[in-house]
Amino acid sequence: MPDPVQPAPPTVPGQVIDAHTHLFTRGLLEEMLAAMPPDAMKRWRDALKSGKMGRPGREQTLPDMTPQDTAAWYIDRINEAGVAKALVVSVMPDNQWTRDFIVAAKGHVQALCNVDPRDPGSAALLEREMAAGFRGVKLLPVNRCFRLSDPACRPFFEKAAELEAPIIIHYGVTVDPTGDLRYADPLDLSPVARDFPSIQFVIAHFGAGWLGNTLRLAYQCKNVCVDTSGTNNWMDYHVPKLTLPEVFERALTALGPERVLFGTDSGTTAPYRTWIKFQQMRVLEELGLSDGDRDLIARGNAVRIFHMDE
Ligand SMILES: [Zn+2]
């Protein structure tokens, strides 16, 4: 039995917060699929059947524990990797398992809820989720095929502004085979970020292939940030060729250190991505940032935007 989880103390400069991670477990998937038609979400159903998840040939075991045991396990895992706290970005809307998990994680791990902002019930769901302890919202326009500029999303954004809920958005390429790249361009956020200047938007993975438009959007709207999370293998498809230090340099020049957030995009069906942390921290060191600026990226921005220390 793992030790009972103690409430997390506030972080201090020098510590690291991973501002983009994932959580997949058997209980979480079971709850989500029970609410869906039997033919929906085949990828997840297959994962439940086999107890494994991941790309073909690289499947890993799906954790099968209670929310409480998962929380203790998750905290050990990030701490072993030298990470003080983590933010889970949910891909499942309205999930009690995840709510139980964040309560059990006692501030070491926080989470963003997931909603479909076109849904007329999304504003009410957001209100319930923020009251349940979520720290904001993750939106998946490419995977779920919607535009945030759609007037149907307006009531959702009005509620997000009222609740001061920050929002991470995945634009660009995705590992999800059902993704539709017609929804991949972050410029679609432009009228929304303009009209809701009090909402903090974070574009994940530097825009996952749409770096140029992400930076242009961030020029126009000062409430737009980026996260660095993931392998950033979108660079392999980028013309002209880019290196990770160049991507960081572009983002830092355009946005400044207070608008770039560190993340690994680690899930729970593979080991924590220590190598990504190592790689990105080395890039920050090589760019010659001050300790203070490095701390903003590795910790401080996540504390400010997602209230990770409250
Ligand atoms: Zn992710």
How would you describe what is shown here?
The protein has 310 residues and is α/β, with parallel strands linked by helices. The protein has twelve helices and ten strands. The strands form two sheets. It has an eight-stranded parallel β-sheet with strand order 1-4-5-6-7-8-9-10, sandwiched between helices. The two termini are 28 Å apart. Bound molecules: zinc ion. The site of zinc ion has 4 residues, from loops. Zinc ion binds next to loops.
Question: How is this fold's topology laid out?
Answer:
Layout: E1 17-21, H1 26-34, H2 42-50, E2 52-53, E3 60-61, H3 67-80, E4 85-89, H4 96-105, E5 109-114, H5 122-131, E6 137-139, H6 141-144, H7 154-163, E7 167-169, H8 190-195, E8 201-203, H9 211-220, E9 224-227, H10 244-255, E10 260-261, H11 274-286, H12 291-306
Parallel strand pairs: 1-4, 4-5, 5-6, 6-7, 7-8, 8-9, 9-10
Antiparallel strand pairs: 2-3
Residues 20, 22, 89, 265 line the site of zinc ion.
Question: What brief labels describe this structure?
Answer:
single chain; two-stranded antiparallel sheet; alpha/beta; about 40% helix; about 10% strand; 12 helices; about 300 residues
Report the sheet-strand fraction. Answer: 5-15%
Can you summarize the main beta sheet?
8 strands, parallel
Judging from the principal axes of the Cα atoms, what is the shape?
globular
What is the typical, i.e. mean, pLDDT?
A: 94
Radius of gyration: 18 Å
What ligands does this structure carry? Answer: zinc ion
Order of strands, main sheet, comes to: 1-4-5-6-7-8-9-10
What's the N-to-C terminus distance? 28 Å
Give the number of DSSP strands: 10
| SSE topology string | EHHEEHEHEHEHHEHEHEHEHH
Number of helices: 12
Give the helix proportion (percent range).
25-40%
- Provide the structure class: alpha/beta
Could you list the spans in which at least 5 consecutive residues all have pLDDT below 50? none
